[in-house]
Design brief:
This protein has 208 residues and is α+β, with helices and mostly antiparallel strands. The chain is globular and about 55 Å long. The protein starts with a helix and ends with a helix. The chain has one domain. Strands 1-2-3 form a three-stranded antiparallel sheet. It has a three-stranded antiparallel sheet with strand order 4-5-6, covered by helices on one side.
């Protein structure tokens, strides 16, 4: 995928990084959560510790799409590239293509922290109750962002105390999670591969 993107003379690949796996984190996170995340998530994080792929046109012609210079400048500074980059409020828009999946511990290690940032979580789960079913006994349902690809959109797991949680699309920086298809991790990864990380392709693919 990365080689194909780099052969495209109309775009610039600003970042391409596959983090090494940290298998111990999976067990640590599952102990803290009190339930298994399932085979798909386990296999993903056994294969890699996270993914960062960022690309954008050399000459963007859409509002909100970063220029190559902006993408290169932002992602060249490690201090600016933590998972909170798109949620900091310091930046608007995004690159045209971005996959930013942090480590297992970053995604699942403290789901309660997102409750303060993504309000109305009970209503989010209520919207998808028929598809999700009831939560596990004593489970606290949490929305947990998985792919930090955009400041406007979220791609998040709906944790309900059971293995193999589904992914949902959010809009308006976490203000709305309605009108989304729920997809498995396997389907989500297929979308990423087919679109080479296009943010808009992900948005369209998860539209209900």
């Amino acid at each position: 995928m990365v080689n194909a993107l780099r052969r495209n003379k109309s775009i610039v690949v600003a970042a391409a990084e596959l983090l090494p796996p940290e298998p111990a984190e999976i067990a640590e996170v599952e102990r803290a959560l009190g339930f298994s995340l399932g085979d798909a998530i386990g296999e993903f994080y056994q294969a890699c510790g996270g993914i960062k792929l960022v690309w954008t046109p050399k000459d963007p012609d859409e509002d909100g799409i970063w220029s190559a210079d902006q993408a290169t400048e932002v992602f060249a500074a490690p201090a600016k590239c933590g998972p909170w980059l798109f949620k900091s409020g310091d930046l608007t828009g995004s690159p045209e293509g971005c996959i930013w999946i942090p480590s297992c511990k970053q995604v699942f290690g403290n789901p309660a922290e997102w409750a303060d940032l993504i309000g109305g979580q009970e209503d989010i789960f209520a919207d998808y109750r028929e598809a999700l079913g009831a939560p596990a006994p004593d489970a606290v349902e949490r929305v947990v962002p998985f792919d930090y690809a955009s400041s406007f959109y979220d791609f998040a797991f709906l944790l309900a105390g059971r293995p193999d949680p589904k992914l949902v699309r959010g809009e308006d920086n976490g203000a709305s999670f309605s009108d989304s298809r729920l997809v498995s991790l396997a389907e989500y990864l297929d979308i990423l591969i087919a679109s080479k990380g296009s943010v808009q392709a992900r948005v369209d693919a998860l539209a209900s």
